[in-house]
Amino acid sequence: MALMSSLNCQAQLLPTPTQEAKPGVRWWWMGSAVDKENLKWNLDEYAKAGIGAVEITPLYGVQGNDKNDIPYLSPKWMDMLKFVEKENKQVGIETDMATGTGWPFGGPWVPISEAACKAVFVDTIVDVKQKLMEIEFNVPLKERAFAKLKVIKAFPMEGEKYKKRVIALYESRTRQKVKRAAPGGEGYVIDHFDSTAVANYLQHIDSAFVASKTPYPHTFFNDSYEVYGANWTPNLLTEFEKYHGYKLQDKFPEFLDGDAVVVSDYRETLGDMLLHNFTEQWTKWANKRGAITRNQAHGSPANLIDCYAAVDIPEIEGFGLTDFGIKGLRKDPGKTRPNFSDLSMLKYAPSAAHITGKKYTSSETFTWLTEHFRTSLSQMKPDMDLMFCAGVNHMFFHGTAYSPKNDTWPGWKFYASVDMSPTNSIWRDAPELMKYITNCQTYLQWGQPDNDFLVYLPVRDMWRKDTKNWLMQFDIHSMAKKAPEFIKVILDIDKAGFDCDYISDKYLRTCTFKNGMIETAAGTRYKGIIIPGNNIMPSDVIEHISELKSQGAKIIKGDNIKAMEQAAKPELMRKTLGLKMIRRANSIGHHYFIANLTSKDIASSVALAVNEKHGIWYNPMTGEYHEATIGDKGIQLNLKSGESRILITSNKPVNEWKLGPKVKVGGKEAIAAADSKTIDLTENAWKLSFIEDAPKVDETFNLKGVKSWEGLSDKAKVMMGTGVYETTIKLSKDDAKKQWAIDLGDVRESARVYINNKYVGCAWAVPYILNCKDALNKGKNTLRIKVTNLPANRIAELDRQGVKWRKMKEINVVDINYKKTTYENWTPVPSGLNSTVKLVEIK
Question: Is the keyword Calcium in the record (predicted)?
Fold first, then answer.
């Protein structure tokens, strides 16, 4: 029986897509004004496109639609949730939900006594003889209705015999309300550091599920920590003394004056209270009800590794568009946001998952890339690839808004979103992106992480900086200022060819040294520990590191590349070629995800860090497998700028892998050679017509030479839809025997190619090149290219016409700088085939 099980396992050697490998999407319910007919339509559209999970997040509503709003957690709202859960089982979508409306946690059931808390200190100098209770403290006017006196302490003043310093601590409330709250969700944000406040908040949500007998969702979600000015909680002084062995109130002068040690101890206490009283309690609550948690820890005033690691699925966030300089990838000057989430930021959540043995790392993906209506599929892929290289393997789009099927275009929209929705023209070819993500995540969820080093997160170095403002929050936008030295070390490790995971005191304490490797309690193995910064760490952690070193563990101080090279073998594709990659271990060897996020095409042999001589390539864009050549000089790499591949390696010959009947490994992937023949079709006679177009363009254009369509007519200039380009080409007998690829040049924005009515593929990301395979014949061949553009030109025309499509409440639709805007001054964006079309011989 054991042998049969082993053989069956081998027969299924390579992974196959699962539900969890599909992309998820944040699903905004505007005003929760949903109905069953349109819920079903939305879910059917998502399922057909390849979405695997929806995360329900109720928000503010639509203007003039109040009568259809459904209060959060009301019986009707729970009935809608129950309907979604039932429908999703039919279409194969996982149901997740935010643990509240908008963000952060809060609502009308949160009393002011459990709302986010802040300290108000009144610092004064009085006569040494004055009694403390007789002092009139000047509490700020706006705090007087909420502030409660907690502590009064007097302190002697150096050189002042007749004066004393008196400090009074008042506890007040920030009165922050839930941001972007939905009907029934408006109210105070909770005190995340108060276990009772958190428990009461969750109990209210729990009661709605119990009363309505609604099944709990698969996952409860928590967005990034955006609680402002909450720097206190009623039990902080007690907890501080437990943690540090002295009373914070005895050190009020040092605290207020910014003493580095005292402020650091305060920050550590506050962070631990958030971890235990909020993050851990919330996860235990969800797990007890058969659900799991997915959490964004960034923004919180705590050790991010500990908070990410405390949940079932840690989630990082991508915020902006990275300018990689990829060849042929269009830019949109002035209409994109720079990406605040570089590799060093993206690695927090994956690190927490890796060191604790969690299978999945999620990402809030494409929060802001460009202005609304201007984001293409091609612009999404590079930043998605960077996230994959950081360790993400369970991505969620940010996002899609529920919109009624028959609502006037563009329908209901969220203010900060790539708008991955059925009303966006890019939705037509979005299933190709979904397939790509699913194929990548199938492999990135397989096996175990195989990064080289643990890097100690020097959070105490950070906590001892900028101490005049005691509250320190680790949000995406300010990490470059809070941890520049740490970020430099991480980027230097990457440039040197290595990969790493971050580790905190909590998880370092349980690491052991086994068989020449450092091993976490979850069994993840590393070749050494890198300790950047000033080595400010607890004494027991220092002792444990010393003990690991005495056993033979490699302990590397600072940014010592030479010491790293003595402990591990760098990946030269990362070090010398500048490729981004991640390596994972599996049952037969290793596999790599590799992305060329450089401006150069790369054709080179490079040695691998793993000494494995057999392998195959997997192209996640096409789903095809090809032979990999691993010789004395290493692996032969051929990656054009913007391309990505998965490499599977082993010491077993491929014919012993037992791949199963569905996996067909072809020969070497055909590529263009220096002597390849090219047939230029650019100046051909082309016919251009339109389908799925709005407004309707009835005219058919006969073009002498391929060109984009926004300049062809007034209607074409403002049209959103698909242009169909058609031409013919004659091939000689000799040419028909050759292998060909079609290079579409600059595509705006995605193109489906048909040759002789045979579907060749969809070009949706750079380089826009497709293998023609056996579609071309001797003699006359018909080429048809269906190109879909962005909705930018259509929405700009609506603004010029004064159409009132911005109908959401509250923030409505804003620009990338969160300011009100209109689009009537946009010049038409290129649409269609925008440069050349060529057949290129491949060998």
Answer: no
Q: Nearest 5 degrees, angle CA 310-CA 314-CA 318? A: 145
Rounded to an integer, the average pLDDT of 452-457 is 98
The H or E element containing residue 748 is: strand 747-748
- Three-class secondary structure of residue 598 per DSSP: coil
User: Of 303, 288, 635, nearest to 456 (Cα)?
Assistant: 303
Of the chain, the end-to-end C-alpha distance in Å amounts to: 47
> Could you count the other beta carbons within 10 Å of the beta carbon of residue 484?
10
β-sheet bridge partners, residue 179: 103
Q: Alpha carbon of 834 to those of 181, 669, 702: distances in Å?
A: 43, 28, 16
Residue 10 predicted with pLDDT over 50? no
Give how far Cα 656 sits from Cα of 15, 342, 665, Å.
16, 40, 13
The Cα 390–Cα 360 span in angstroms is 13
Cβ contact 294:287 at 8 Å? no
Residue type, 676: S
pLDDT band at residue 12 using 50, 70 and 90 as cut-offs: low
DSSP string covering 93-142: -EEEEESSSSBSSEETT--GGGB-EEEEEEEEEEETTS-GGG------GG
- Taking each helix axis from N to C terminus, what angle separates 75-91 and 36-49, rounded to the nearest 10 degrees? 30
What's the CA dihedral at 508, 511, 513, 514 to 10 degrees? -150
Q: How far apart are CA 470 and CA 466, in angstroms?
A: 8
In sequence order, what are the residues at sequence separation of 6 or more whose Cβ sits closer than 8 angstroms to the Cβ of residue 411?
A: 401, 403, 404, 421, 423
Under DSSP, the state recorded for 278 is I
pLDDT at 534 over 90: no
Nearest to 239 by CA among 257, 258, 266: 266
3-state secondary structure of 818: coil
DSSP structure string for 702-746: EEES---STTT-HHHHT-EEEEEEEEEEEE-HHHHHSEEEEE--S
Report whether pLDDT(824) > 90. yes
> Which phi and psi angles does 722 have, rounded to 5°?
-125, 125
Give 842's strand partners. 739
- The answer to whether residue 132 scores a pLDDT higher than 80 is yes
Predicted model pTM: 0.97
Given a cut of 60, whether residue 454 has pLDDT beyond it is yes
Q: Token digits for 451?
A: 């990064």
> CA-based angle 472:153:128, to the nearest 5?
130
Render pLDDT for 758-784 as a digit per residue (tens, 0 to 9).
999 999 999 999 999 999 999 999 999
Residues 341, 343, 345: CA angle, nearest 5 degrees: 50
* Residue linked to tokens 């028959």: 406
DSSP-assigned states of every residue in 409-458: TT----SS----STTSGGGGTHHHHHHHHHHHHHHHTSSEE--SEEEE--
Query: What is the percent of the chain with per-residue pLDDT over 90, rounded to a whole number?
Result: 95
Tens digit of pLDDT for each residue in 50-93? 999 999 999 999 999 999 999 999 999 999 999 999 999 999 99
Residue recorded with tokens 């000015």 = 229
The confidence score (pLDDT) of residue 13 equals 84
